[in-house]
Amino acid sequence: APWSVLCYYAEEINLRVPLQVNTSSSSAMLSRLSLPNPMLQDVPNPPPCFYTCEFRTNKLQRFLGSDNEETFFKTTQRHQVLYEILARTPYGSVSKGQVGIDRLLSEQVFTDAYPLHEMSPQSFSVRQILYAYWAKWSCWTRYQPLDHIREYFGEKIALYFAWLGFYTAWLVPASLVGTLIFLFGLWLMFTDVPAKEVCESGGSFVMCPTCNICSTWNYSSICLTYKAGILFDNGGTVFLSVFMSLWAITFLEYWKRTCSALSHRWNCSEFEDIEERPRPEFTAMAPMTMRNPVTGLEEPYFPENQRFNRTLSGCMVIVAGKIASITSSVLNLLLILMLSRVYFALAHILTRWEMHRTQNKYEDMFILKVFIFQFVNFYSSPVYIAFFKGRFVGYPGNYNTLFGVRNEDCGAGGCLIELAQELLVIMVGKQLINNIQEFIVPKLKSWWQKRRMSPRLREVKVEGGEETQRAEVSPWEADHQLLECEGLLSEYLEMVIQFGFITIFVAACPLAPLFALINNWVEIRLDAQKFVTEYRRPVVERAQDIGIWLPIMQFITHAAVLTNAFLIAFTSSFLPRLYYRYTRDRTLSGFVNFTLATSHHRTIMMVYFHLLAIQLSFVIIFEHVVFFIGRLIDMMVPDIPEEVEIKIKREHYMAKEALAENRRGTRPSPPLKNESPPPNLKEIPEETDSDSRQQLR
């Protein structure tokens, strides 16, 4: 990329270049308090942070470092320029969409196209720094070198790791509270009055047969199961549900602040997508063309009403998949993981069929479909156990059936302990399997790829005889032996599904945040190793935030409030115990007998309606209080910190000064009537339409 080419395309794609060094520190608060930061590490060659503005060739001298053509544009910016050239260069008929490297790759003219990893044995390269200070397991207690990650991989990948580290840090207080609630449950196991009544009842409570051919049984036989249920079904889980609901809201609010600070630091706070080119597949399959109102060029077009109909059809497929999942009671973990792959393939097919014009729109719709599929896939079983299992059983002698099969009932210990078991199996089991896959599978794939693409031996004639020596491997061949970077979809999806587990069903499993914290400590290093040592270097992509994943997590947060309210009200024994404590006995003595009914008594007592009114009231009060406090938090925590707003305003001022035609005090007055505009301004042709005139201005 010669200097003239870099300058032309830097202006064309609005690259931002430095005006002045911007000094900021991630540990400013601790330094003001004169406290050491144990997680800070001294990473060499920290990339400087600058105030920037969009590049203009005619203002070159006003930019910092413009005197050195070799270092003025960063490596990642050179990659952006080169990819822009490759992506929009025609190789055939433009009307047929024969444009760009992506189309050539889709037609398998080329096998791959990728930027090269840095290889500089003389100095400590950014890649070597990332390996030594980020990818090694010994760095698990240290901050991630986010500026170096952004310098090497670009803003989109750096924002993912920033979000993952931020989320992991916020899991620390959640896991501490969850562990304390679990210990509180352990204490209740040995002090709870109803538990003692069950274990010491002997043959006092003779229970009806659980099936038509079963015999009677003693209630005391479930002593251990009843005590285990208290671990997850106690008053502490109500506090944990409120805490985690507010935790999730506060976490997202503070992430927005952190994201705004990072996007400004990385010069993406005002990032707007460049007018995107149509996807190669869209270009090839679009049934008609239409003039682009911005560029004025004829482009492939797909009618919006047809796209809407196809999107609606795709939604019907999602609904069908949801019904099939709910009716299947308890899903096996291996079946869930197998269905995940099926859902990925189906989401690809549906999104391609919908014919989205740009890659961003395509990715957003694909992510949304995959999330909905996975949401149903992973959460249908816990939802069934929490809210449907054991609700429509009937009573001894008149059990309800569906298609001739008796409806499932919860075990003698209650549905909540079964829900906790299900969550532990799915959540912890999935995390273990995923981590094993992420550790072993890339290494096996890399070994196989290197073996399949091993450099061939060349015969070399040497005086005095023949020798064979291995050819020197070129950098592009060495990188070709690495694995193709598969993007961030699976990484985000895994963490967002986990976020749902620790918020939506936290009332049933207080240890879920702790398991998530342990998993994420491992996940960060596994992902770092993959990107630094096992993946080819991806094309740099700029990003202002984490995209559609933030609205998805906001949806999960709202769903968690409602789910926890219904879980506490209708699945746990918290409200029945509270009702009994204030209407019968404050020590809960006799509570077990209160919850049982005699076999000949089938009428609904007034207690049932009292409890139902209390349960519905609890749901309404719980969600109103949590949403109200969440709204207060949203109002009290601005999305952009004040110091960042000041820096943004200063950057605007500096950019305005740098791009001004003349320095302050020598600015010319506007041209008079019939006077020609300054020579550096282009006249707008009279025949230009109003929209285009506005665009040119």
TrEMBL record:
<keyword id="KW-1003">Cell membrane</keyword>
<feature type="transmembrane region" description="Helical">
    <location>
        <begin position="157"/>
        <end position="190"/>
    </location>
</feature>
<feature type="transmembrane region" description="Helical">
    <location>
        <begin position="546"/>
        <end position="570"/>
    </location>
</feature>
<dbReference type="GO" id="GO:0005886">
    <property type="term" value="C:plasma membrane"/>
</dbReference>
<feature type="transmembrane region" description="Helical">
    <location>
        <begin position="333"/>
        <end position="353"/>
    </location>
</feature>
<feature type="region of interest" description="Disordered">
    <location>
        <begin position="659"/>
        <end position="697"/>
    </location>
</feature>
<dbReference type="Pfam" id="PF04547">
    <property type="entry name" value="Anoctamin"/>
</dbReference>
<feature type="transmembrane region" description="Helical">
    <location>
        <begin position="365"/>
        <end position="387"/>
    </location>
</feature>
<keyword id="KW-0472">Membrane</keyword>
<dbReference type="InterPro" id="IPR007632">
    <property type="entry name" value="Anoctamin"/>
</dbReference>
<dbReference type="InterPro" id="IPR049452">
    <property type="entry name" value="Anoctamin_TM"/>
</dbReference>
<feature type="transmembrane region" description="Helical">
    <location>
        <begin position="496"/>
        <end position="518"/>
    </location>
</feature>
<dbReference type="GO" id="GO:0061588">
    <property type="term" value="P:calcium activated phospholipid scrambling"/>
</dbReference>
<dbReference type="GO" id="GO:0005254">
    <property type="term" value="F:chloride channel activity"/>
</dbReference>
<feature type="compositionally biased region" description="Pro residues">
    <location>
        <begin position="668"/>
        <end position="680"/>
    </location>
</feature>
<feature type="domain" description="Anoctamin transmembrane">
    <location>
        <begin position="149"/>
        <end position="651"/>
    </location>
</feature>
<feature type="transmembrane region" description="Helical">
    <location>
        <begin position="607"/>
        <end position="629"/>
    </location>
</feature>
<keyword id="KW-0325">Glycoprotein</keyword>
<feature type="domain" description="Anoctamin dimerisation">
    <location>
        <begin position="1"/>
        <end position="146"/>
    </location>
</feature>
<feature type="transmembrane region" description="Helical">
    <location>
        <begin position="236"/>
        <end position="255"/>
    </location>
</feature>
<comment type="similarity">
    <text>Belongs to the anoctamin family.</text>
</comment>
<dbReference type="GO" id="GO:0046983">
    <property type="term" value="F:protein dimerization activity"/>
</dbReference>
<keyword id="KW-0812">Transmembrane</keyword>
<dbReference type="Pfam" id="PF16178">
    <property type="entry name" value="Anoct_dimer"/>
</dbReference>
<protein>
    <recommendedName>
        <fullName>Anoctamin</fullName>
    </recommendedName>
</protein>
<dbReference type="InterPro" id="IPR032394">
    <property type="entry name" value="Anoct_dimer"/>
</dbReference>
<keyword id="KW-1133">Transmembrane helix</keyword>
